[in-house]
Amino acid sequence: xxxxxxxxxxxxxxxxxxxxxxxxxxxxxxxxxxxxxxxxxxxxxxxxxxxxxxxxxxxxxxxxxxxxxxxxxxxxxxxxxxxxxxxxxxxxxxxxxxxxxxxxxxxxxxxxxxxxxxxxxxxxxxxxxxxxxxx
Amino acid sequence: xxxxxxxxxxxxxxxxxxxxxxxxxxxxxxxxxxxxxxxxxxxxxxxxxxxxxxxxxxxxxxxxxxxxxxxxxxxxxxxxxxxxxxxxxxxxxxxxxxxxxxxxxxxxxxxxxxxxxxxxxxxxxxxxxxxxxxxxxxxxxxxxxxxxxxxxxxxxxxxxxxxxx
Lengths: 135, 165
Description:
Largest sheet of chain B: none
Strand content of chain A: 35-45%
Number of helices of chain B: 7
CATH class of the largest domain in chain A: Mainly Beta
CATH architecture of the largest domain in chain A: Beta Complex
Helix content of chain A: 25-40%
Oligomer: heterodimer
Distance between the termini of chain B: 8 Å
CATH architecture of chain B: Orthogonal Bundle
Shape of chain A: elongated
Largest interface: A-B, 22 and 33 residues
Structural class of chain A: alpha+beta
Structural class of chain B: mainly alpha
Radius of gyration of chain B: 16 Å
CATH class of chain B: Mainly Alpha
Shape of chain B: globular
Largest sheet of chain A: 5 strands, mixed
Number of helices of chain A: 2
Helix content of chain B: over 70%
CATH topology of the largest domain in chain A: Ferric Hydroxamate Uptake Protein, Chain A, domain 1
Distance between the termini of chain A: 52 Å
């Protein structure tokens, strides 16, 4: 009985620690996240196809996140997922999922760790959307 | 448990893990694989490793063997090892905390697979950008364990007992 009570107490302490860790993690994310910028901005989007040919699009937009900017130009289509829009088609070119093709977004060559819905844009940003084969 | 029964249990566990993962894949960060790995480890500690191996291969065959797949090779065994270590504990509240903590730390554990690709900066930025999803994962894991641990534990204990006869 006493041991059970002791175990319950330990579990409760562990639960409190988990909650504290969750709060700290949220704070870490909140204060380091990229914030959207208001106002007009000019961005460049380069679409790179499987044969390595590419198209460059200059977009002037008031959008704060990449998705809206791309949709204003009707550049992307996709499926709604838990992480926002999962891009399946760019500039009329579909990624063949059966062939493990997907659209990889990079910003000035650097990997973007956010989805299009939550990728903020700033004036002068340059994005690349590349048809990539293999997960 | 004889060999035939043991192989059947291992195969069934792998099939259930895979089916449950596919069925719930449309729900945002709500999954039952973690809870099932805990429960299977408690009920069938000798079979869980084979079941996890088959499950990982099935995931790779279904979704493709990409970088993400490497994390499956250590994430689930870590949870199974934790469950194995505490397998005598059958308190739903205890497993609610463990499952919740696992959900919360899932992103961090997975981020390690990006260490060889982009070093610590890439690993950290990948982890931090996914923290909101980890928090949802932690909460949903806690809830599923709190609600489902007891009934599933009872059912699996019964099955394990019957199979030993």
